[in-house]
Specification:
The protein has 103 residues and is mostly helical. The chain folds into two domains: 45 residues; 38 residues, no CATH class. The chain is 45% helix and 4% strand. It contains three helices and two strands. It is elongated and about 80 Å long. 2% of the residues are buried.
Length: 103
């Protein structure tokens, strides 16, 4: 009579995961060998296979662009680029022209 305790089931799961990893590695080796053979036989390049030349991936997902300041509070000198939520010192202003930074 087989016992179905938690410990036994976890041991079987671990054994199956190890077996799956071994089988997957063997299948990957077979696929890579086949692909390498075909690439060599047909004289394909990286661009032929992937459609573009692959480059190293950047560690940062998006580079931030420095904002150019457009408005300045004459009392405090605080600046605002005009993007995002307006700061309190300019939010109520109907005409923001007097806060523009002259270039």
């Amino acid at each position: 009579m087989a016992t179905n305790s938690y410990r036994d089931i976890k041991a079987r799961i671990a054994a199956l995961e190890q077996k799956a990893a071994t089988v997957r590695a063997a299948e990957i080796e077979a696929v890579l060998a086949d692909v390498r053979q075909k690439v060599t036989a047909f004289g394909l390049t990286e661009r032929d296979v992937f459609g573009r030349k692959r480059s190293a991936r950047k560690t940062t997902s998006v580079e931030k662009v420095a904002s150019v300041m457009k408005y300045r509070d004459p009392k405090t000198g605080a600046q605002w680029s005009g993007r995002g939520r307006a700061p309190k010192w300019i939010a109520a202003a109907k005409n923001r022209d007097r806060f523009l930074i002259s270039r």
